[in-house]
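stage 2 :: seqdesign
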């Protein structure tokens, strides 16, 4: 399979052209697109790195309750502690992030169970219902426009057992390299359909050009992602959009784990 470097938009301001060009070149090295065509023309779908979001490098998310991992009741109360980050606040935006789908309720926690679509929580304490069995929970801080905060302390990963069911989630270990899907999600309308954010969370692995990477397949167009950061998807047609994310090793082979190959559908209207 051959790839070419994905071009980025040229700098707009002439006076800053040189510095912007160097910066865009550095960003483009982290995304490659498979050379595929639709009919007689190259696909219009592109992805570009989302840059300059507030870093929140010292933001921290901790789980204070529950402390155990085995529960007889199906409803569990969760209590989180948030440091150096304000839930409910609007994240400062730049020209690009102003165009993204944004929550009017502000910054929040993405709470993900068994790599299913997340629920958003704007308060640190809430309750969740679980079926019997083993469940894998990943929670992380999110900006108001749903970009995850990526640092060593911005997330919680936990495995719990509910009830007495012998059922097990097969082939999942949150202590091994794991890919957690986040965005895009659900339905987009109006201007929100123009720029969709592609974002995911990684556990116990790094991405690089010569190491592990994420393959994103969007409506049949494949992109090789070699840096963990959010991306902007452009050029999507209205209707149903199919997105597949795979965590692969340097040889392009799947990395073991049931969550490391996930497909989601979103709708653009």
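stage 2 :: out
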């Amino acid at each position: 399979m051959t790839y070419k470097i994905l071009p980025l938009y040229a700098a707009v301001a002439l006076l800053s052209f040189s510095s912007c060009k160097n910066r865009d070149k550095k960003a483009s090295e982290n995304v490659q697109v498979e050379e595929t065509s639709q009919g007689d023309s190259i696909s219009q779908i592109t992805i570009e790195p989302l840059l300059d979001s507030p870093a929140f490098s010292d933001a921290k998310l901790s789980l204070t309750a529950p402390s155990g991992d085995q529960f007889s009741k199906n409803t569990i109360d969760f209590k989180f502690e948030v440091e150096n980050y304000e839930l409910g606040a609007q994240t400062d935006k730049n020209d690009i992030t102003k165009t993204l789908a944004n929550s009017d309720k502000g910054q929040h926690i993405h709470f993900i169970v068994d790599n299913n679509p997340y629920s958003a929580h704007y308060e640190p304490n809430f309750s969740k219902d679980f079926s019997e069995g083993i469940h894998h929970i990943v929670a992380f801080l999110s900006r108001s426009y749903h970009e995850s905060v990526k640092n060593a302390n911005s997330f919680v990963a936990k495995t719990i057992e509910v009830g007495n069911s012998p059922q097990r989630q097969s082939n999942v270990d949150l202590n091994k390299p794991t890919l957690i899907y986040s965005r895009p999600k659900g339905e987009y309308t109006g201007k929100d359909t123009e720029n969709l954010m592609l974002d995911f969370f990684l556990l116990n692995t790094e991405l690089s050009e010569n190491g592990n990477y994420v393959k994103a397949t969007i409506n049949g167009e494949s992109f090789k992602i070699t840096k963990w950061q959010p991306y902007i998807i452009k050029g999507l047609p209205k209707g149903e959009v199919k997105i597949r994310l795979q965590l692969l090793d340097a040889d392009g082979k799947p990395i073991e784990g049931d969550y490391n190959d996930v497909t989601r559908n979103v709708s653009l209207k």
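stage 3 :: structure notes
- Confidence is low (pLDDT under 50) at residues 1-27, 35-41.
- The longest helix spans residues 17-28.
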